[in-house]
UniProtKB/TrEMBL annotation:
Lineage top rank: taxon: Bacteria
GO molecular function: acyltransferase activity, transferring groups other than amino-acyl groups
Protein name, UniProt field: N-acetyltransferase domain-containing protein
All copies of domain N-acetyltransferase, residue ranges: 3-161
Endpoints of the signal sequence: none
InterPro entries, per the entry: Acyl_CoA_acyltransferase, BcerS-like, GNAT_dom
Amino acid sequence: MTVQIRPVRTRGDLKRFIDLPFRLYRGQEHWVPPLRLMVAEQLNRKKNPWFEHAEAEYFLAERDGRVVGRITAHVDRALHEFQGNRWGQFGWFEVEDDQEATNALLDAAAAWVKERGCDRIVGPFSFTTNDECGLLVNGFDRPPIVLTGWHHPYYRTLLENAGGFERAMDTLMWDLHARDRERVHPMIWRIAERVESEHGIVSRHFVKKDLEAEVGRFLEVYNAAWEKNWGFVPLNETEVRHYAKELGPILDENWAMVSEIPETGEVVGAALSLPDFNQVLRRVRNGRLLPFGWLTLLRHRKQTDRVRVFALGVKPEYQHTGVGAKLYEMHYQSAMRTPQGGGECGWILESNLNMNRAMSKMGGTVARRYRFYERLLEDGAEPSAPKDSKFTGDWVDEQSKLAAGRVENA
């Protein structure tokens, strides 16, 4: 039967959209099922503050009345204004091993964003770089850490065989063992030791009872430190409060840090690492809290043994002070007094050689690689990232192999 593409219009359609990956990944040990309630809220145009500056359409692919795939198409006005581009985006991509359905879904998404003046479509983003994004192309042998995804290996083949889609950018997740100080380059500790004495910058942990103010401090650094990143859009205050509400239940003060100048009160750096709640979610295979899912979450929520370094940044004018090294050191100190002895850092743009060098000096190895694809929709449109040697991945792959002392497939 011919594939039919139609937009999500009813509650039943939305349920089919949310349910599809639970069928596609049934029996896959490394896939972590999301909580259906949280997915529904993220897709809810009235509850997700991202929709204050963006619009999206959700599509289902059906064959003979059976859902075989899904995708979203979206246009983010804040992205256009901040980056000065005309990107359209796609995300929430899930599909059976079916090239016809894949082509039809991508064509529908591309047509939708082109009608709204976009010169390309880039993805997957669900919906932003702060959410799950990118397609897993390396590292299928391990479960994803919190706020990252696991995808069928055939997805890569489907996307690369879809007409006009090319690799736009890769991002890396680095594996770090924070209790093994011997793997860290000694220079890191020397730099960290001088931050306060030479620059008057004090680093401390978040105070959870003052979470709202702490989140504001984090936002100040986050928007300044990441503003030049590929695909980055600054978070507004409403979005930060929304994320704080969602992440609050799993936030641990041991893994949330801020660096500031006491005399002026200026915040110059911040880091936010999250206990790997995926280790708990994977026990709730149906993604439902009722009738017994919530008991499982309560029973196991303190049994995580790794973290994800979600964000670690320093304002550009203070990046010479060694604040980054101090925040790294604090992570090692936290690992010594908590159940989490390591985890993953990222994602980090493959083109960010400075950050990838830092991960290598910390003794890290590349754990997983995610890829973004794009299709140009207008004649004369240029690729979103320059295709030069910095984007080949050769350097970071080689450093990862050296740090691990063994050859890894990357």
